[in-house]
């Protein structure tokens, strides 16, 4: 089994030496493009297995991720946990609202009620989406046992204290991120990458403000 960084590089999922904008709006010189990874089901399964092995002794009952890209990680993790524990572990997901919240739809709140929940995500810049998932799990009556990401890009910014729950990562791949107003990439005049990340949306939004 390859390590995660090797998997990401082999699928072209790590983009470096660029100027990218993340979901949070923060700017960064590198980016993890999970869309390049997701078509490779063998690798997504391997990553799900790594999540499962890490939490095999935590008596997890439901694995939850934010939609859309998080869904395969939730499903593969639940699949491998089920095989390891020889019992059914469910997979569920939250969905983004127009207000940028993460909420349960499709009756999935009933699946987590009273259950021991593991939240998994591919990567996070500030942890904002993960925290919204945690809130929805708690509102639905689920118990957060752990939160884990495939890659933690900034351990100082994203950790158990900032997330508000036991937080873990499978790998650390440090990528500095900057507020737009303090971004050295902007100051250096490096063009924003509009092919990957949220650069295109960022530029469109800024254009509307002018």
UniProtKB/TrEMBL annotation:
Belongs to the purine/pyrimidine phosphoribosyltransferase family. PyrE subfamily. Coiled coil: none annotated. Homodimer. The keyword Nucleotidyltransferase does not apply. Residues 43-153 form the Phosphoribosyltransferase domain. Pathway: Pyrimidine metabolism; UMP biosynthesis via de novo pathway; UMP from orotate: step 1/2. GO terms for molecular function: magnesium ion binding; orotate phosphoribosyltransferase activity. This is Orotate phosphoribosyltransferase. 5-phospho-alpha-D-ribose 1-diphosphate binds at residues 96, 121-129. GO terms for biological process: 'de novo' UMP biosynthetic process; pyrimidine nucleobase biosynthetic process. Catalyzes the transfer of a ribosyl phosphate group from 5-phosphoribose 1-diphosphate to orotate, leading to the formation of orotidine monophosphate (OMP). Its cofactor is Mg(2+). It catalyses: orotidine 5'-phosphate + diphosphate = orotate + 5-phospho-alpha-D-ribose 1-diphosphate. Transmembrane segments: none annotated. CDD domains: PRTases_typeI (cd06223). Keywords: Glycosyltransferase, Magnesium, Pyrimidine biosynthesis, Transferase. Its EC number is 2.4.2.10. Orotate binds at residues 125, 153.
């Amino acid at each position: 089994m390859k390590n995660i960084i090797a998997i990401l590089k082999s699928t072209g999922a790590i983009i470096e030496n660029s100027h990218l904008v993340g979901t949070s709006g923060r700017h960064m010189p590198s980016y993890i493009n999970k869309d390049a990874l997701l078509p490779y089901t063998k690798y997504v399964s391997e990553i799900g297995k790594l999540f499962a092995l890490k939490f095999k002794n935590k008596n997890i009952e439901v694995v939850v991720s934010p939609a859309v890209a998080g869904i395969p990680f939730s499903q593969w993790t639940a699949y491998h946990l089920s095989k390891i524990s020889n019992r059914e572990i469910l997979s569920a997901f939250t969905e983004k609202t127009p207000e940028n919240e993460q909420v349960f739809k499709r009756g999935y709140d009933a699946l987590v009620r009273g259950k021991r929940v593991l939240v998994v995500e591919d990567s996070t810049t500030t942890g904002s989406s993960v925290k919204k998932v945690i809130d929805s799990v708690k509102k639905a009556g689920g118990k957060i046992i752990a939160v884990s990401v495939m890659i933690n890009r900034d351990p100082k910014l994203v950790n158990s204290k900032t997330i508000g729950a036991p937080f873990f990562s499978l790998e650390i791949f440090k990528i500095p991120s900057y507020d737009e107003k303090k971004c050295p990439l902007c100051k250096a005049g490096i063009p924003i990458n509009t092919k990957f990340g949220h650069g295109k949306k960022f530029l469109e939004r800024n254009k509307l403000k002018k």
